[in-house]
Specification:
It is built from 11 helices and 9 strands. It is α/β, with parallel strands linked by helices and 292 residues long. The structure holds S-adenosylmethionine (SAM).
Amino acid sequence: MRILDAVRTVSEYLEKAGVDDHLADAEILTYHAASIDRMTAFIDNPEIDNRVYAKIIRMAKRRAGGEPVQYIAGSVEFLGLTIHVGKGVLIPRPETEILVEEAIKTVAAQRIYQPASLPSDILDLCTGSGCIALALAKEFPDAGVIGTDVSPEALRYARRNRAANSIRNVTFRNGSLFGPVKRGETFDLITANPPYIVSREIQDLQREVKDWEPVTALDGGDDGLDFYRQILGAARAYLKPAGALVMELGYGQAGAVSEIAGAEGFSEIQIVNDFAGIGRIIRVTPGFPSPK
Ligand SMILES: C[S@@+](CC[C@H](N)C(=O)[O-])C[C@H]1O[C@@H](n2cnc3c(N)ncnc32)[C@H](O)[C@@H]1O
């Protein structure tokens, strides 16, 4: 069988199983199983042997059962990094690349006012696969980056991803939010993509998400805002005076999270939209303490 015939067969099988992106997923799984890139498949359309075809069928069955294609392939690309994923860790989303881009702009702007070029201290809360922490560490090799997460399973992926991408300036620590931060440690930048789904809406998500991705990575409490309240309530003590906090937001949360930030005394509250025009990123600075 030639590889493009295998793609067509798998695509038809996945379509019958109700998979929306059946052609794209068939291509990802088939090329992954055959260790071939898309361009070569199209140009050469090589024969595949029975062993590879059996592997493709096994993967297609997993996908038909609802498992996310990224878990089956085992990795995704995130801003040029290879991020390994599997059950127990959230799959990085394209919106999160916007968070990293905003975080990079924030650090770059801080460095204009720090001519001594002190290496930046960066904290990534809710680090999961480590995608944000690792992308920032790669961009700023002189920075010291710490990633924290409550899930030991997620941190196993984060550490594996650090090794896979040969990044040395990140440490990962296990614990809840600021819990693993040592007394006296403060940061130029704190980033977070916290769980932000309203608890009762988790059941309405796509089956790939609700049945496969860890609920601890999704559940933001009764109104989806629990983590924003906790992070904004505590962050000031961990930010340097010219520091900034940059977080990803769920759909429709920009107004409510801006209000929480304002009530906690943060200033320069900025919202950045995603590709769909939805307020997706919030950036705040500690500003001056309000007069008593
Ligand atoms: C939405 S995921 C984000 C993962 C990753 N940063 C990304 O952008 O793909 C949220 C992460 O928060 C972690 N988490 C949940 N509760 C936490 C807590 N109390 N303290 C620290 N991390 C927590 C989950 O384990 C999960 O890895």
